[in-house]
## 1
Amino acid sequence: MNSTPRPSIDAKRMVVFDDVQQASHHVADEIIQLVGTKPSAVLGLATGSTPIAVYEELIRRYRAGEVDFSKITTFNLDEYVGLSPEHPQSFAAFMRTHLFDAIDVPEHHTHVPAGVANDFLSTAELFEKKIQTSGGIDWQLLGIGDNGHIGFNEPGSPGDSGTRLVELADETIEANSRFFDSPDDVPRQAITMGIATILKAKRLVLMAFGAAKAQAVADAVAGPVTPDCPASFLQRHPNATFIVDRAAAAALPTEA
Ligand SMILES: N[C@@H]1[C@@H](O)[C@H](O)[C@@H](COP(=O)(O)O)O[C@@H]1O
């Protein structure tokens, strides 16, 4: 018998894995199954350290000949303002390094919001339009910030927000400074899909690992739906699942 207390959240909404590898394989399997049944699937992708093992597994399975990504379309959640796609810390560069360069997705099928633009309002509108004309996002991957942000929708982001220019929270700048030479180099603004953009995806999978995410996960899954915790809006989605490890599940209410 397993004596570990189980979170009192139903299995459709949250799955707790023993380790990151198992969780990542589970998520990669879901993507591969979708692309197997719908080769032209539209995938929403995320950056950050959390999804890296998923991308590694997708690459491994692609090299093994188990999946063909040549017809998929991808949309990324966000990009730093001021960083061109060539900048090594841009999310566009992250995606090339961790996934796109290693699989057969055509470059023109991949979309990362532009971090350099004359007019971010029309850039954001164009991004939304491209998602719509592609048929909408079938499957969206998400990470979560320690403060509950999804994409770069920081606390305070309204549920009806679309793709837009946003200011980064101090704690996000601090958390992401590990990727830059100095905290002063971290951009202060970003362009991000909005909460409403994200909620339009047919399926949402949010991954969270480690104790630093535990409070944000508990607030998102078991707290009130509020802009104070942007990930809590996932409670309004009929097909959203949190994939977490034990440490990230530790602050959830448990079954008696
Ligand atoms: N904009 C991204 C998010 O999409 C990501 O989910 C989050 C967590 O990152 P990590 O996975 O490295 O903890 O922070 C970043 O700032």
## 2
Amino acid sequence: MAILSVNVNKIATLRNARGGNVPDLLKVSADIERFGAQGITIHPRPDERHIRYQDARDLKRMVTTELNIEGNPIESFVKLVEEVRPHQVTLVPDAVDAITSNAGWDTVKNKNFLKEMVDHFKSMGIRTSIFVDPVLEMVEGAAKTGVDRIELYTEDYAIGYVKDPEAAIKPYVEAAEAAHDLSLGINAGHDLSLDNIEYFSKHIPNLKEVSIGHALISESLYLGLENVVNMYKKKLS
Ligand SMILES: CC(=O)[C@@H](O)[C@H](O)COP(=O)(O)O
Ligand SMILES: NCC(=O)COP(=O)(O)O
């Protein structure tokens, strides 16, 4: 059964809208854990428009499950991860001004850089993951860096699922099978939701973790955070 790591970026977005501390990111994160989530994910961006670097430091002190930090390993991000030492770091090739993540790594072109980053973080005892599209060549490239896991970028699945779930899941099943054969752990995320998560988790072999933020927080407006966390866990079981 895959674990649910809740991405709390959107809680920070809401807090930052007024400049104060409402909602309180640390309290909401603690409550999300209390409601049953098995991890907290953050994706600090260089402009700190939602998660601030200080949030990462504060969360590390209070998270009792697993803290996953995602981002492009630019110098400031690398320094932050070195200081915070999360349980997992997920490398994502975002442009500085990206609205949200929109592609996985080209693990062939960036093999040396990724290997250097993976070696560096692994030497600190941090589990590593590389964000990739469901493309066999990219999965094989990730394995050559020595990374522990891949995170499958699921936006195409989320879009395709609405029209044709079988066609949408196919490349992800193939990528997951290849990853497992290469001894890579498998995470997934981006635009996963209460509508599409069950089909995804039932069809992807050896899925270890999903990180979900945008849809989960939006669904909570109608259904309540505690309820939604438990609905996801049920669909993942
Ligand atoms: C890597 C990934 O898919 C998520 O971390 C996503 O990028 C969330 O970031 P935003 O909340 O800034 O959209
Ligand atoms: N790694 C994906 C993530 O953390 C959440 O992405 P989204 O659910 O906000 O699209």
